[in-house]
C-alpha cells in the first residue's frame, strides 16, 4: 500500500476542518500546502505541526526569529519553507534583499549583518551541523541572550528542522507567491 505524504484537499473531515481553523491563512483565506500536509495526522495537526512558536509572546524580535528560521530552512535545503517566510515575514522583519540572499548564500560573518546577528547565524549553523555549540560560541551566546531567548532559539532550530523534513520529504510544491532560493554567484574567473 502506498502512503504518500501529500497535502489534503477539501472537503476535509470535520475534525480536520476544525483543527485547520487554528492555522494562519494565506491570502484569500487559503490554507498553505504544508499545513494541509500536516493534516495527514490529526495528532500532528493538533500540535500545530511545530508552528506554535510563531506568536507574539516570543522573547525574540520578529527579525531574530526570521533570521533563525531562514537560516535553518536554507541549511536544510527547504526552499518551500524558506520562500514562505521570505514572502510573508521578510519585509516586516526589515530584512534587506541582500540579507535574505545571505541567509542562503553567505557565511555567518557576512558584512550585511550586525555583530549580534553574525553570532546568531553562527549559532544556528553550529546547531544545524552538530546540535551543539563550541565552547567559545556558547560563552558568547549565553552573554548575548537570556536563558528564555536561548531556549527559544533552540526550539526554533528544532521546529524548523522538523518542518523542513516534512516539506522536503513530501515534496510540497512552492506557494505561488513564494520566491525561490537565490542562485549562487558565478565565480570571478567564470565571468571573464
As residue ranges, the low-confidence spans are: none
Helix content: 40-55%
Instruction: Report the average pLDDT across residues.
Output: 89
Strand tally: 0
Structural class assignment: mainly alpha
Global geometry: globular
Radius of gyration, Cα only, in angstroms? 18 Å
H-E string: HHHHHHHHH
Distance between the termini: 54 Å
Taken as a percent bin, the fraction of beta residues is under 5%
- Number of helix segments? 9
Summary tags:
0% strand; single chain; 192 residues; mainly alpha
Report on this structure:
By secondary structure, the protein is mostly helical. The protein is 53% helix and 0% strand. The protein starts with 13 loop residues before the first helix and ends in a 22-residue tail after the last helix.
Summary of the model, kept short:
The protein is built from 9 helices and no strands.
What order do the helices and strands come in, and which of them pair?
Elements: H1 14-20, H2 33-38, H3 42-46, H4 62-75, H5 79-89, H6 97-105, H7 115-130, H8 135-144, H9 147-170
Helix pairs in contact: 4-5, 4-7, 4-9, 7-8
Amino acid at each position: 500500500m502506498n502512503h504518500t505524504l501529500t497535502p489534503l484537499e477539501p472537503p476535509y473531515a470535520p475534525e480536520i476542518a476544525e483543527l485547520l481553523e487554528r492555522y494562519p491563512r494565506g491570502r484569500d483565506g487559503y490554507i498553505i500546502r504544508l499545513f494541509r500536509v500536516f493534516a495527514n495526522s490529526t495528532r500532528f495537526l493538533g500540535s500545530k505541526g511545530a508552528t506554535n512558536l510563531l506568536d507574539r509572546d516570543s522573547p525574540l524580535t520578529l527579525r531574530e526569529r526570521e533570521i533563525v528560521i531562514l537560516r535553518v530552512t536554507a541549511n536544510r535545503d527547504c526552499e518551500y519553507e524558506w520562500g514562505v517566510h521570505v514572502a510573508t515575514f521578510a519585509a516586516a522583519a526589515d530584512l534587506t534583499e541582500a540579507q535574505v540572499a545571505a541567509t542562503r548564500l553567505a557565511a555567518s560573518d557576512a558584512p550585511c549583518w550586525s555583530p549580534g546577528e553574525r553570532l546568531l547565524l553562527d549559532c544556528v549553523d553550529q546547531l544545524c551541523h552538530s546540535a551543539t555549540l563550541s565552547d567559545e560560541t556558547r560563552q558568547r551566546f549565553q552573554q548575548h541572550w537570556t536563558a528564555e531567548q536561548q531556549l527559544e532559539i533552540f526550539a526554533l532550530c528544532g521546529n524548523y528542522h522538523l518542518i523542513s523534513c516534512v516539506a522536503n520529504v513530501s515534496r510540497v510544491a512552492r506557494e505561488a507567491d513564494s520566491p525561490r532560493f537565490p542562485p549562487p554567484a558565478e565565480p570571478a574567473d567564470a565571468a571573464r
